[in-house]
Structures are given as structure tokens and as C-alpha cells.
Amino acid sequence: MKTALLKIKLFYNTLRKLAGGLTILALMGIVQSHANEEPESNQSNVIKLNTFTIIGSKENVDYLPGSGRFIDHSEITNQTYTDINRVLLSTPGVYVRQEDGYGLFANISLRGVDSSRSAKVTLMEDGIVTAPAPYSAPSAYYTPTIGRMRGLEILKGSSQIKYGPHTTGGVVNYLSTNIPDEASGYLKTSYGSNAETLVHFNYGQSFKTEAGKFGYLIENYDQRSDGFKHIEAATGYAGSDETGFVKNESMLKFFWEPNGDLQQRFDFKVGYSDFDADETYLGLADEDFPSDPFKRYAATRFDNIATYGTRASLRYSISPNKNLKIATTAYYQNFHRNWFKLRRIKTSTDTTYSLGSALATGGTALDILEGTAPGQLDYRNNNRDYYLGGIQSDIRYVFSTGEIKHQIDGGIRYHVDRVRRFQKDESFIQDDSGAIVSTISGPDGGGGNRRQAAESIAFHVQDTILIGDLTLTPGVRYEYIENEYTDFNTNGQPELITGAGTSSLDYVSPGLGFNYRTSQETSLFGGIYRGISVPGPRAHARSNVGLEKSLGYELGLRYRNDNGFNVETALFKTDFDDLIVIDNIGGAGTGNTENVGDVDSYGLELLVGIDPGLINKWAFSLPTSLAFTYTSSTLDGDSRSTDAESIFSGGTDGADVPYIPQYQIQFSTGIEYGNFAVYLDTIYVDSTYSTASNTTNQVNPDGDPDARFGAIDSYFLADLSTSYRINDTITAFIGVHNLFDKTYIASRHPYGARPGRPRTFNGGIELTF
What we know:
Number of strands: 39
Strand content: over 45%
Oligomer: single chain
Low-confidence stretches: 1-47, 584-589
Number of helices: 7
Largest sheet: 22 strands, antiparallel, barrel
């Protein structure tokens, strides 16, 4: 109780000081509002009251003091993409590890950081953290659906200093549909291979009354598929083609701008997501992959993940004068998931195999998975509940000191999140025909029974200093975090506490960026910044896992003209210290979280866009772009992992970081003529290793067979789409993904070789009204 009161007092005093500071700034702004004209700049110095972005537009990228990308709605819809992986690969310096072929479970890396469950990336929607519990359990089993978004923002450099808690990898901000100014609606519906259907609908409007301006938007997104895999039959099991998913996301938005001389705005958003998939962690043995890469073993027929969640936010924005903007947001999210999945097998002689070991060992172990030998299939209900909530206040104040112009961005965020793990084991006994003859049910909580929670308060301040054509952006972020965990009994007394602990940590994360405009079309940018990734409460308090830190440098050049030609290139170097690997084996959900060592990452990014049709004033447009990335991401010293199952175990100095390709090249082009358009997107991803031991053999450092170890060959993919605008309201489209039907291993995690999505077709219509 005493600790709770001290926390409340500390938080109250902090808010009181912040409120006093904001009041002083507001008074300063009111006094100076007539004395100082708003600084002139090609970049907007004022946040619009309805802005939820961190970049705002493609044009604003030119003024960033670091590397960033704004992906607009057309880039997402040209290829009718619903897979976040395919959208992200158009950005240099961004890598993904595919898992399911649909982008249902994102594994995102920026500039060489570990990609597992996007745990090193701060994921946001409309500027609000959106991972289920970014402090307590950062593995992102929920990410917003890219198919319902109007855009996507990515920060990789010093311009990310305002965001956290995971900035060693960068920031990805999803932008939801805006409320329209006039009454309008949108409907997209499509049908494709494997009975994949999509229905996306929204409608909204804004209107004025005596009380002010109001607006609303309703939206629903529904996507479902039977899946492109099949579960093989056994003598005692008929097999199944049901390996797909059903995803539904709904959203409701309101805003109100009261009448009056003072600019004010209230924004409210609430959303609900529901997801069900017959998805598995188990891949294939290498010996089975060439003959039928899209099969699943009979032992996975019970695998299923079900999730649902609610998210809500209320934002109040006020502009006392044109030089001062303040926005305060309260937010809340709950999320539940239960992934019932196969985790290991036992032979009739009671020999236990992990799934990776079973695939690599073969013989009887593989026969059990195929349903041709008697054995025991051990399943687990990975049942977890997540919660997050908080309040954040951001301020922007613009003023001048002589010829020098300043834009101060400051903020404070109080945040809490927690995860409750309450898991139950179940086992299925099968005979030599693959038929299930009996079941065994473990105690409630027997598969994991614990709670983790984190409470944080973070501050940031950044000054954008404009001195002629030079913009300097120093900034700093400070955060204090309190952690706690409680372990409960796993042997039939689920309420009995067996262990508990608390800890606290804090960090300071400074950065300095610059942008120098050498001409109206060209600018240089660069900076140095400290990145941070925080460990989970239990890992920190119980296992003494420390902060992951990075020191990043970048230097780049941008060029953009009015004739449809633009270039951005950047050299980057990032030194990672005490790299944290979540659950050790890169997303397979076992093992222990560790600080595994240091990583040195450097490379070159190049993004080129050109439209020869616009340049040559042809009757048609030919939008073309190239995204090239060269990356060297290697261990700086031997890995400190003590767990042979870790994807970083056995790594030696200079070894490549798993799943980070040396070369990645994305090329896209299209033809737009009148009402007709056709687009071609291609991607080349270089070969990688699935573990830091950099072995091509399926053997872990202890010499035990393990299908997660090995190489991932390079691959080349192409997507083609075409659309025709029938009239001002209706557009028809057809798309082909994986045009050349390339068969390839996309990943060896969580367990064994997993295929990329085969060639699929879809077609449909878009209506605007």
C-alpha cells in the first residue's frame, strides 16, 4: 500500500509540474502570438488538430532529420495487398521473416535487429502503442490489419527519439481511415484462390451544427480463407483442407470541434478485432518439403489459434494560438489469445522429442507426426490475456529567437500493461493408424501459470532548430519503469503463489539529427541516436536480463523534383549491445529470454522513384521504383547464449545474424492510361541462415538434430495486378501473387521448413460513393 501511495504521489507531482510547464508555455504563446509571426518553412510547423501521424505525408519525409518512409493508400491497394510483409518490403532497410504466407504474424526487423515477433519495433496505430503488452510481453501476436489502413509510416533514424519503448529497431505507425469531410463511403469486395474472400466497408461524414463541427466513421473489415495447405491423411484420419483463417476488425470514430475562438477538438475511436486460424508452429522435414511443400502432418490437425480484443482512445487537442498545440490522449486495449498447438511428441517407449528434433531425426519420431506409428501428441493451450492503458500528452510550441526559429516538441506518457498466462496441457494418444484412442488432460495452469506487469513514465523533448537552410534536431527521451511478476503453482493449486519479484530500471536515450537543404530539390540528412529495447518484467527481475542498447549513425541524401523523379540514399551503422532474444529460439515460445551478446550492423539503403511518362509528357504514366538494401549484420564477439536451443547459440565472432539478408532488392513498375492500370512488383531476398551458428546442417551446437537450424535459400517473387475504372464510382481489379509460382522455404521457425505462399489469384470491385 505504501508503495502504491508513493507511486500515486510521484505521478501526481509529475503531472502537476508538467501542467505548470504547459501553462507557462501557453501564457508565453498567448503573449507572443502577435509579436512573433509563425516561422516560415517548407515543412509545416504546426500540428493540425486532427493529426495522428508521425510523418504526415510523402513530402514531409524530405524534412526529416533521419531516414523514414511514408506509404500511402495507393501503394497498398495497387497490388491489393493484405500482407504486411509485402507492403514493408518496398522500404529499404526493412526485413521480414515470413511464417504463414498471409502476414498474420508479423516478424519485422529494421536495420539488422532480431525480427522475432517484431519485439524490437515500436508498433503503433494512429500514434498509440498497439502491441498487446509492449513492456510485459513485447512479442506481437496482434498487429493491425494493413488491408484496412490508409497508410503506413516507418522511422529508422534519429527522428524516432520521441517514441518507445523499443527503438533499437525503429517505429512502424499504422494509419487508420480518416473521417471524411463530406458524406462518403467505400466498399471493396474480392474473391480468390482457396476461397479467400474480403469485404471492406466504411462510411462517414462531417457536418456543422450550432454546437460545432461533428464527424463520424464506421468501418468493418472481414477477410477469410480456407488456406493453401492441406493436412495429410492417415489410415485412422481422413485428412483435411481446412488450414485457413477468419479475421474481422471493426472500428468506430467520432470527432467534435466546438465553436469558439479557441481551436479545440475531441477525437474518440473504438475498435474490435476477432481472429481464428487453423495455424500451426510445425513445419516440414527437409526430406518431405520437395515432394509436397504445402502439406501438414496429421499430428497438427488440432492446432488452432483464437484471439479477440478491444481498443479505445480519447484525444483532446487544443491550440491556444497559432504557435502552441497540445494534445492529450487516454488509451486502453485488452487482448486475449489461445493458441492450442502441438509442442512435442513421445514414442510408445516414452522417448520425448521436441518438434525440431522429431523433424530432423526422422524415423519413428517422424512416423508419429505422420500418423503411421503409435505415440503421444502433447498439446498446450497457450492461453494468455493482455491489457494496456495509459495517458500521453504532447505539446508543440513554435517561436523565434532572432533569425533562429525553434519548434519544441515535448511529451509525457504514463503507461501500464500486463500479461496473464494461464495454460493447460492436453495429450492425445494415437495408435499406429493415426486414430486418437484416448486423451489426457493436465491441471489448470499446468502448462504455465504466471502474471507479469509493468508501469512506466516517459518524457521526451526535442527542439527542431531552423537556421537558414540548416535544421538541427537535438532530443532526449527519459523513461522510468517498474516491473513485477508472480509465479503460481502448476501442479493443481493454480491460486498458490510460488514465486514473485519486483524490479525497476530507467534509461536516457539522446539523439541528434540534421537536415541541410543544399537546394530546393536536394537535402542532406544524418544523425546519431541511442536506441533502447527493454526486457520483460520476469526476465529483468528474476533472470537479471538487462537493457538492450544501440548506438546508431546515419548519413544520407534526398533529391526530389517536380518531374516525378526522387532519390533517397543512406549509409547506416548500428552497434547493438546486450541483444535481447525473446524466449530464446526466435518465436518458438520455449527457452529463456537472454542477453546473447553484441551485434554490429551497417549498410546502404537506396530508394529511387521515377515516372518517365511524366518526365516525357507521354499520354500515359509509368510509375517505377527501386528499393535496394545492402546489410552486414554480424555478431561482435561470440554469442553468450547458454541454451543450445537458442537461435543465437553457437554463434561466433563475425557470424551473420539470423534471417537478415545481405542483399534485398524490390522493383516495381506500372502503366496508368486513362481508366486502365497495370502494376508489376518484384522482390529478391538473398540467402540467410536461420541461426547464428551459421550452419547448413540441421544440428544444434550440442550436436543434437534440430530442424530449426540450417540455411534459407534466396528467392525471387513477382506480383501482377490490373484495374479498370468503369465509372467514377466503380473500379474492377484482378491480381496474381507469386506470378511464377515459386516454391521456396520462407522460414525454419518456429519448427522446421515452412513454405512461402504459392501462386494465388484474386479479383473484385471497389466502390466509392
